Amino acid sequence: MEQSNLQQKKLNIIQLIVAVAAACLVHGVMQGVHDNYGIMLNGLLPVTNVDYAGISFCIGAGALVYGFAQPFLGMLALRKSNVFVIFIGILSTIVGLVITPLCRNIFTLFIFFGLVLPFGTTGLCFGIVMGAITPVLGERRAAIVSGIVQASAGIGDALMSPGLERIISGFGIRTAMTITTLPFFIMVPVAFWLGKKSRDCTIVSRDKKTIGNQSLSSILKVAFADRDYRLILIGFATCGFNMSIIESHLFSQYLSYGISGKTASLTLTIYGIATMTGAVFVGFLGAKFRMKNILGCVYAMRILISLGFLILPKTVPFAFLATTLLGMSGDATVPPTSGIISRKFGAEKMAVLYGFTLIGHQIGAFASSYLGGILVKMNMGYSPLWAINMVLAVIASIASFSIRNDKTSMG
Fold first, then answer.
1. Which end of the chain is more exposed for a tag (fewer CB within 10 A), N or C?
2. What does the pLDDT read at residue 116?
3. Residue 206 gets which letter from DSSP?
4. What is the pTM of this model?
Protein backbone atom coordinates (compact mmCIF):
# COMPACT_ATOMS: atom_id res chain seq x y z
CA MET A 1 0.00 0.00 0.00
CA GLU A 2 2.80 2.38 0.97
CA GLN A 3 4.71 1.53 -2.23
CA SER A 4 1.56 2.15 -4.29
CA ASN A 5 1.13 5.58 -2.70
CA LEU A 6 4.77 6.38 -3.41
CA GLN A 7 4.39 5.41 -7.07
CA GLN A 8 1.22 7.52 -7.35
CA LYS A 9 3.04 10.47 -5.80
CA LYS A 10 5.90 10.15 -8.31
CA LEU A 11 3.37 9.91 -11.15
CA ASN A 12 1.64 13.08 -9.95
CA ILE A 13 4.97 14.93 -9.79
CA ILE A 14 5.79 13.85 -13.35
CA GLN A 15 2.38 15.03 -14.53
CA LEU A 16 2.91 18.40 -12.84
CA ILE A 17 6.30 18.82 -14.50
CA VAL A 18 4.88 17.89 -17.91
CA ALA A 19 1.95 20.29 -17.43
CA VAL A 20 4.27 23.17 -16.58
CA ALA A 21 6.59 22.33 -19.49
CA ALA A 22 3.61 22.18 -21.88
CA ALA A 23 2.34 25.56 -20.67
CA CYS A 24 5.82 27.06 -21.06
CA LEU A 25 6.07 25.72 -24.64
CA VAL A 26 2.70 27.15 -25.67
CA HIS A 27 3.15 30.53 -24.02
CA GLY A 28 6.86 30.87 -24.79
CA VAL A 29 6.56 30.27 -28.53
CA MET A 30 3.50 32.51 -28.78
CA GLN A 31 5.33 35.32 -26.99
CA GLY A 32 8.36 34.79 -29.22
CA VAL A 33 6.13 35.66 -32.19
CA HIS A 34 4.25 38.44 -30.42
CA ASP A 35 7.41 40.22 -29.20
CA ASN A 36 9.20 40.11 -32.55
CA TYR A 37 6.82 42.04 -34.80
CA GLY A 38 9.52 44.73 -34.91
CA ILE A 39 11.99 42.34 -36.58
CA MET A 40 9.26 41.11 -38.93
CA LEU A 41 8.47 44.75 -39.78
CA ASN A 42 11.91 45.27 -41.32
CA GLY A 43 11.56 42.02 -43.30
CA LEU A 44 8.09 42.93 -44.58
CA LEU A 45 9.08 46.42 -45.81
CA PRO A 46 10.72 45.32 -49.09
CA VAL A 47 8.08 42.73 -50.08
CA THR A 48 4.67 44.14 -49.14
CA ASN A 49 4.67 47.56 -50.87
CA VAL A 50 3.62 49.04 -47.51
CA ASP A 51 5.71 51.75 -45.78
CA TYR A 52 6.98 51.86 -42.16
CA ALA A 53 3.97 53.83 -40.89
CA GLY A 54 1.52 51.46 -42.62
CA ILE A 55 3.09 48.31 -41.14
CA SER A 56 3.29 50.06 -37.75
CA PHE A 57 -0.45 50.71 -38.03
CA CYS A 58 -1.07 46.99 -38.66
CA ILE A 59 1.03 46.11 -35.61
CA GLY A 60 -0.95 48.65 -33.60
CA ALA A 61 -4.23 47.17 -34.83
CA GLY A 62 -2.96 43.75 -33.81
CA ALA A 63 -2.26 45.13 -30.35
CA LEU A 64 -5.93 46.15 -30.08
CA VAL A 65 -7.05 42.70 -31.25
CA TYR A 66 -4.79 41.08 -28.65
CA GLY A 67 -6.51 43.16 -25.97
CA PHE A 68 -10.15 43.22 -27.01
CA ALA A 69 -10.32 39.52 -27.91
CA GLN A 70 -9.00 38.28 -24.57
CA PRO A 71 -12.09 38.69 -22.35
CA PHE A 72 -14.30 37.13 -25.03
CA LEU A 73 -11.93 34.20 -25.51
CA GLY A 74 -11.84 33.96 -21.72
CA MET A 75 -15.63 33.58 -21.68
CA LEU A 76 -15.38 30.99 -24.46
CA ALA A 77 -12.85 29.14 -22.30
CA LEU A 78 -15.34 29.15 -19.40
CA ARG A 79 -18.14 27.77 -21.57
CA LYS A 80 -16.08 25.33 -23.67
CA SER A 81 -12.56 24.89 -22.30
CA ASN A 82 -9.22 26.67 -22.22
CA VAL A 83 -7.76 23.96 -24.47
CA PHE A 84 -10.50 24.55 -27.06
CA VAL A 85 -9.39 28.19 -27.22
CA ILE A 86 -5.74 27.10 -27.47
CA PHE A 87 -6.60 25.04 -30.58
CA ILE A 88 -8.26 28.11 -32.15
CA GLY A 89 -5.13 30.10 -31.32
CA ILE A 90 -2.81 27.55 -32.93
CA LEU A 91 -4.82 27.44 -36.17
CA SER A 92 -5.15 31.22 -36.51
CA THR A 93 -1.47 31.81 -35.74
CA ILE A 94 -0.36 29.33 -38.42
CA VAL A 95 -2.65 30.94 -41.02
CA GLY A 96 -1.41 34.43 -40.12
CA LEU A 97 2.26 33.46 -40.32
CA VAL A 98 1.90 31.70 -43.69
CA ILE A 99 -0.23 34.34 -45.47
CA THR A 100 1.32 37.58 -44.13
CA PRO A 101 4.50 37.55 -46.29
CA LEU A 102 2.32 36.96 -49.37
CA CYS A 103 0.41 40.23 -48.83
CA ARG A 104 1.09 43.01 -51.33
CA ASN A 105 -1.06 45.90 -50.09
CA ILE A 106 -2.16 47.52 -46.83
CA PHE A 107 -5.63 45.89 -46.89
CA THR A 108 -4.48 42.27 -47.03
CA LEU A 109 -1.60 42.99 -44.64
CA PHE A 110 -4.10 44.49 -42.20
CA ILE A 111 -6.30 41.37 -42.41
CA PHE A 112 -3.60 38.75 -41.83
CA PHE A 113 -0.84 40.62 -39.94
CA GLY A 114 -3.16 43.01 -38.10
CA LEU A 115 -6.12 40.72 -37.34
CA VAL A 116 -5.66 36.98 -37.94
CA LEU A 117 -2.14 36.56 -36.52
CA PRO A 118 -2.73 38.57 -33.30
CA PHE A 119 -6.10 36.83 -32.80
CA GLY A 120 -4.23 33.54 -32.90
CA THR A 121 -1.64 34.65 -30.35
CA THR A 122 -4.49 35.88 -28.14
CA GLY A 123 -5.78 32.31 -27.91
CA LEU A 124 -2.36 31.28 -26.54
CA CYS A 125 -2.04 34.11 -24.03
CA PHE A 126 -1.03 33.85 -20.38
CA GLY A 127 -4.54 33.83 -18.91
CA ILE A 128 -5.78 31.07 -21.22
CA VAL A 129 -2.69 28.90 -20.69
CA MET A 130 -2.81 29.30 -16.89
CA GLY A 131 -6.49 28.46 -16.96
CA ALA A 132 -5.66 25.23 -18.80
CA ILE A 133 -3.09 24.01 -16.26
CA THR A 134 -4.62 25.30 -13.00
CA PRO A 135 -6.94 22.25 -12.70
CA VAL A 136 -3.85 20.03 -12.95
CA LEU A 137 -1.70 22.07 -10.56
CA GLY A 138 -4.22 23.28 -8.00
CA GLU A 139 -4.54 26.97 -7.11
CA ARG A 140 -1.70 26.99 -4.53
CA ARG A 141 0.91 25.63 -6.95
CA ALA A 142 -0.50 27.73 -9.81
CA ALA A 143 0.36 30.95 -7.94
CA ILE A 144 4.05 29.98 -7.90
CA VAL A 145 4.07 28.46 -11.39
CA SER A 146 2.60 31.64 -12.91
CA GLY A 147 6.01 33.31 -12.68
CA ILE A 148 7.68 30.35 -14.40
CA VAL A 149 5.11 30.30 -17.22
CA GLN A 150 5.45 34.04 -17.73
CA ALA A 151 9.23 33.60 -17.74
CA SER A 152 8.89 31.23 -20.69
CA ALA A 153 8.15 34.34 -22.75
CA GLY A 154 11.80 35.17 -22.30
CA ILE A 155 12.81 31.80 -23.74
CA GLY A 156 10.76 32.59 -26.84
CA ASP A 157 12.44 36.00 -27.16
CA ALA A 158 15.94 34.67 -26.50
CA LEU A 159 15.69 31.94 -29.13
CA MET A 160 13.44 33.51 -31.74
CA SER A 161 14.81 37.07 -31.92
CA PRO A 162 18.26 36.18 -33.33
CA GLY A 163 16.81 33.23 -35.27
CA LEU A 164 14.26 35.38 -37.06
CA GLU A 165 16.80 38.10 -37.84
CA ARG A 166 19.26 35.62 -39.35
CA ILE A 167 16.68 33.72 -41.40
CA ILE A 168 15.15 36.96 -42.70
CA SER A 169 18.61 38.29 -43.62
CA GLY A 170 19.63 35.04 -45.33
CA PHE A 171 16.43 33.66 -46.84
CA GLY A 172 13.74 36.34 -46.64
CA ILE A 173 10.64 36.98 -44.58
CA ARG A 174 8.50 34.31 -46.27
CA THR A 175 10.88 31.50 -45.31
CA ALA A 176 11.32 32.91 -41.81
CA MET A 177 7.59 33.13 -41.05
CA THR A 178 6.91 29.70 -42.58
CA ILE A 179 9.60 28.09 -40.41
CA THR A 180 8.10 29.87 -37.38
CA THR A 181 4.91 27.82 -37.85
CA LEU A 182 6.70 24.54 -36.99
CA PRO A 183 6.55 24.91 -33.18
CA PHE A 184 2.82 25.55 -33.44
CA PHE A 185 2.29 22.19 -35.16
CA ILE A 186 4.22 20.60 -32.27
CA MET A 187 1.76 22.24 -29.88
CA VAL A 188 -1.18 20.21 -31.23
CA PRO A 189 -0.42 16.93 -29.35
CA VAL A 190 0.64 19.01 -26.33
CA ALA A 191 -2.76 20.70 -26.31
CA PHE A 192 -4.53 17.32 -26.61
CA TRP A 193 -2.64 16.10 -23.54
CA LEU A 194 -3.50 19.26 -21.57
CA GLY A 195 -7.16 18.83 -22.51
CA LYS A 196 -7.22 15.26 -21.24
CA LYS A 197 -5.52 16.16 -17.95
CA SER A 198 -7.83 19.15 -17.41
CA ARG A 199 -10.90 16.93 -17.86
CA ASP A 200 -9.50 14.41 -15.41
CA CYS A 201 -8.99 17.05 -12.72
CA THR A 202 -11.48 19.31 -10.95
CA ILE A 203 -11.16 22.54 -9.03
CA VAL A 204 -12.66 21.71 -5.66
CA SER A 205 -12.86 25.24 -4.28
CA ARG A 206 -15.45 26.62 -6.73
CA ASP A 207 -18.50 25.61 -8.67
CA LYS A 208 -17.20 26.02 -12.23
CA LYS A 209 -20.60 25.32 -13.78
CA THR A 210 -22.13 28.22 -11.89
CA ILE A 211 -19.30 30.52 -12.92
CA GLY A 212 -19.56 29.37 -16.52
CA ASN A 213 -23.24 30.38 -16.60
CA GLN A 214 -22.44 33.96 -15.60
CA SER A 215 -22.42 36.60 -18.31
CA LEU A 216 -19.41 38.73 -19.18
CA SER A 217 -21.29 41.85 -18.12
CA SER A 218 -22.12 40.45 -14.68
CA ILE A 219 -18.50 39.43 -14.03
CA LEU A 220 -17.22 42.84 -15.17
CA LYS A 221 -19.85 44.70 -13.11
CA VAL A 222 -18.54 43.13 -9.91
CA ALA A 223 -14.93 43.81 -10.91
CA PHE A 224 -15.48 47.46 -11.84
CA ALA A 225 -17.19 48.08 -8.52
CA ASP A 226 -13.87 47.22 -6.91
CA ARG A 227 -11.51 50.21 -6.50
CA ASP A 228 -8.40 48.04 -6.66
CA TYR A 229 -9.40 46.52 -10.00
CA ARG A 230 -9.79 50.02 -11.44
CA LEU A 231 -6.28 50.91 -10.23
CA ILE A 232 -4.92 47.72 -11.81
CA LEU A 233 -6.51 48.77 -15.11
CA ILE A 234 -4.80 52.18 -14.95
CA GLY A 235 -1.39 50.65 -14.33
CA PHE A 236 -1.70 47.95 -16.96
CA ALA A 237 -2.81 50.42 -19.63
CA THR A 238 0.49 52.27 -19.24
CA CYS A 239 2.30 48.93 -19.36
CA GLY A 240 1.06 48.36 -22.91
CA PHE A 241 2.58 51.62 -24.10
CA ASN A 242 5.96 50.57 -22.67
CA MET A 243 5.89 47.04 -24.06
CA SER A 244 4.95 48.06 -27.58
CA ILE A 245 7.93 50.41 -27.79
CA ILE A 246 10.09 47.33 -27.20
CA GLU A 247 8.16 44.96 -29.47
CA SER A 248 7.54 47.34 -32.38
CA HIS A 249 10.35 49.90 -32.42
CA LEU A 250 13.33 48.99 -30.25
CA PHE A 251 15.08 46.95 -32.97
CA SER A 252 14.66 49.75 -35.54
CA GLN A 253 15.62 52.32 -32.91
CA TYR A 254 18.96 50.61 -32.29
CA LEU A 255 19.56 50.43 -36.04
CA SER A 256 18.99 54.21 -36.21
CA TYR A 257 21.76 54.67 -33.62
CA GLY A 258 24.21 52.94 -35.97
CA ILE A 259 24.10 49.61 -34.12
CA SER A 260 24.28 46.60 -36.49
CA GLY A 261 21.31 44.30 -37.02
CA LYS A 262 23.25 41.37 -35.54
CA THR A 263 24.06 43.30 -32.37
CA ALA A 264 20.53 44.70 -32.12
CA SER A 265 19.04 41.18 -32.33
CA LEU A 266 21.55 40.03 -29.70
CA THR A 267 20.27 42.71 -27.33
CA LEU A 268 16.80 41.21 -27.79
CA THR A 269 18.22 37.83 -26.82
CA ILE A 270 19.49 39.47 -23.62
CA TYR A 271 16.02 40.99 -23.26
CA GLY A 272 14.51 37.51 -23.38
CA ILE A 273 16.86 36.17 -20.72
CA ALA A 274 16.23 39.21 -18.51
CA THR A 275 12.48 38.78 -19.00
CA MET A 276 12.71 35.22 -17.67
CA THR A 277 14.78 36.34 -14.70
CA GLY A 278 12.48 39.23 -13.84
CA ALA A 279 9.26 37.22 -14.09
CA VAL A 280 10.55 34.31 -11.99
CA PHE A 281 12.10 36.64 -9.41
CA VAL A 282 8.90 38.64 -9.05
CA GLY A 283 6.85 35.42 -8.90
CA PHE A 284 8.81 34.28 -5.84
CA LEU A 285 8.76 37.75 -4.28
CA GLY A 286 4.97 37.60 -4.48
CA ALA A 287 5.00 34.77 -1.93
CA LYS A 288 6.80 36.95 0.63
CA PHE A 289 5.82 40.57 -0.02
CA ARG A 290 2.64 42.42 -0.87
CA MET A 291 2.03 42.20 -4.59
CA LYS A 292 0.93 45.83 -4.88
CA ASN A 293 4.31 47.02 -3.59
CA ILE A 294 6.17 44.74 -5.99
CA LEU A 295 4.05 46.06 -8.86
CA GLY A 296 4.65 49.68 -7.85
CA CYS A 297 8.43 49.12 -7.74
CA VAL A 298 8.45 47.52 -11.21
CA TYR A 299 6.66 50.53 -12.69
CA ALA A 300 9.04 52.87 -10.84
CA MET A 301 11.96 51.05 -12.49
CA ARG A 302 10.56 52.03 -15.89
CA ILE A 303 10.74 55.71 -14.94
CA LEU A 304 14.52 55.43 -14.63
CA ILE A 305 14.87 53.41 -17.85
CA SER A 306 12.87 55.99 -19.85
CA LEU A 307 14.99 58.78 -18.40
CA GLY A 308 18.10 56.90 -19.55
CA PHE A 309 16.83 56.79 -23.14
CA LEU A 310 16.30 60.55 -23.00
CA ILE A 311 19.64 61.71 -21.55
CA LEU A 312 22.34 59.02 -21.94
CA PRO A 313 24.58 58.47 -25.01
CA LYS A 314 23.17 55.76 -27.30
CA THR A 315 26.16 53.41 -27.40
CA VAL A 316 26.33 49.62 -27.68
CA PRO A 317 26.96 49.21 -23.90
CA PHE A 318 23.94 51.44 -23.24
CA ALA A 319 21.82 49.30 -25.57
CA PHE A 320 22.73 46.11 -23.69
CA LEU A 321 22.20 47.70 -20.25
CA ALA A 322 18.91 49.37 -21.21
CA THR A 323 17.55 46.23 -22.87
CA THR A 324 18.48 44.14 -19.84
CA LEU A 325 16.60 46.49 -17.53
CA LEU A 326 13.65 46.60 -19.93
CA GLY A 327 13.56 42.80 -19.79
CA MET A 328 13.79 42.70 -15.98
CA SER A 329 10.83 45.07 -15.71
CA GLY A 330 8.94 43.93 -18.84
CA ASP A 331 6.87 40.86 -18.00
CA ALA A 332 7.50 41.33 -14.28
CA THR A 333 4.17 43.18 -14.06
CA VAL A 334 2.21 40.06 -15.06
CA PRO A 335 2.64 37.76 -12.00
CA PRO A 336 1.61 40.41 -9.43
CA THR A 337 -1.20 41.74 -11.64
CA SER A 338 -2.67 38.29 -12.33
CA GLY A 339 -1.99 37.27 -8.72
CA ILE A 340 -3.98 40.18 -7.28
CA ILE A 341 -6.87 39.48 -9.66
CA SER A 342 -6.84 35.74 -8.92
CA ARG A 343 -6.81 36.26 -5.15
CA LYS A 344 -9.59 38.83 -5.20
CA PHE A 345 -11.94 37.24 -7.73
CA GLY A 346 -10.92 33.58 -8.06
CA ALA A 347 -8.71 31.64 -10.44
CA GLU A 348 -11.62 30.64 -12.69
CA LYS A 349 -12.42 34.28 -13.49
CA MET A 350 -8.78 35.21 -13.98
CA ALA A 351 -8.74 34.53 -17.74
CA VAL A 352 -11.72 36.86 -18.18
CA LEU A 353 -10.69 39.66 -15.81
CA TYR A 354 -6.98 39.55 -16.62
CA GLY A 355 -8.01 39.47 -20.28
CA PHE A 356 -10.11 42.59 -19.79
CA THR A 357 -7.16 44.45 -18.25
CA LEU A 358 -5.37 43.74 -21.52
CA ILE A 359 -7.87 45.89 -23.41
CA GLY A 360 -6.39 48.94 -21.70
CA HIS A 361 -2.93 47.42 -22.06
CA GLN A 362 -3.33 46.99 -25.81
CA ILE A 363 -4.89 50.42 -26.34
CA GLY A 364 -1.65 51.74 -24.88
CA ALA A 365 0.27 49.36 -27.13
CA PHE A 366 -1.58 50.61 -30.22
CA ALA A 367 -0.82 54.21 -29.25
CA SER A 368 2.95 53.69 -28.94
CA SER A 369 3.16 51.42 -31.99
CA TYR A 370 1.33 53.77 -34.35
CA LEU A 371 2.73 56.96 -32.80
CA GLY A 372 6.26 55.59 -33.17
CA GLY A 373 5.67 55.00 -36.88
CA ILE A 374 4.34 58.55 -37.34
CA LEU A 375 7.26 60.09 -35.42
CA VAL A 376 9.81 58.20 -37.54
CA LYS A 377 8.04 59.25 -40.73
CA MET A 378 8.19 62.89 -39.52
CA ASN A 379 11.92 62.50 -38.68
CA MET A 380 11.26 63.30 -35.00
CA GLY A 381 12.95 60.17 -33.68
CA TYR A 382 12.02 58.08 -30.65
CA SER A 383 12.64 60.49 -27.76
CA PRO A 384 9.00 61.71 -27.54
CA LEU A 385 7.90 58.08 -27.02
CA TRP A 386 10.24 57.68 -24.04
CA ALA A 387 9.15 61.02 -22.55
CA ILE A 388 5.49 59.93 -22.66
CA ASN A 389 6.46 56.51 -21.32
CA MET A 390 8.19 58.10 -18.31
CA VAL A 391 5.07 60.10 -17.39
CA LEU A 392 2.86 57.03 -17.75
CA ALA A 393 5.22 54.98 -15.56
CA VAL A 394 4.86 57.59 -12.79
CA ILE A 395 1.07 57.29 -13.00
CA ALA A 396 1.23 53.46 -12.94
CA SER A 397 3.55 53.36 -9.97
CA ILE A 398 1.33 55.68 -7.92
CA ALA A 399 -1.79 53.68 -8.87
CA SER A 400 -0.16 50.38 -7.85
CA PHE A 401 1.04 51.61 -4.47
CA SER A 402 -2.52 52.91 -3.88
CA ILE A 403 -4.08 49.42 -4.06
CA ARG A 404 -5.55 48.66 -0.63
CA ASN A 405 -6.32 44.96 -0.50
CA ASP A 406 -4.14 42.52 -2.41
CA LYS A 407 -4.09 39.66 0.07
CA THR A 408 -7.63 38.45 0.74
CA SER A 409 -9.68 36.58 -1.85
CA MET A 410 -13.06 38.22 -2.46
CA GLY A 411 -14.27 35.26 -4.63
1. N
2. 96
3. S
4. 0.70
